[in-house]
Amino acid sequence: MQSELWLAQLILAFHLLIIAFNVFGLIAIPLGAWRGWQWVRIFWWRALHLATLFVVAAQALLGRACFLTIWQSRLQEAVGRQGDHLPLIQTWINHLFFWHLPMIFFTTIYVLVWIGVLLLWWKVPPVLPWRRP
Fold it and tell me: Taking the model in full, what pTM does it have?
C-alpha cells in the first residue's frame, strides 16, 4: 500500500521533469539560436524534445489524458488518496498544471506547440551525428 503511494509520487516527479524539459526546450532552442549556443543543436536532445511533445499532442488528439497522469491517479486511488487528501505540494502542483478547461483548448495548444517545435527543427536545425565535421 505504501509502495503504491511512493510510486505515484515518483511518477508525479517524473511527469514534472518531462514538463520542465519540454518548457525549457521551448525557451532554450530559440534563445540558444539567437545567442549562438551550439548545444541547442545537439541531435539527440532535439529529437527527444520533439518526440516528447509529439506524445503530448498525439494523446490530446486521441482525446486521452496523459498516461503518466492516469498511472498516478490509479496508484493514488489504490491507496485511497484523492483530492484534498493529497500532500500539500502535490495538491499545489495539481492546481498549477491541471486546469479545468475544455480538452479542445489543451489539444489546440499542444498541437500548435508541436508544430512550433517542428518549425524550430527547420529554422534551428540540429547537427546530425552522421554529418559532423
Answer: 0.81
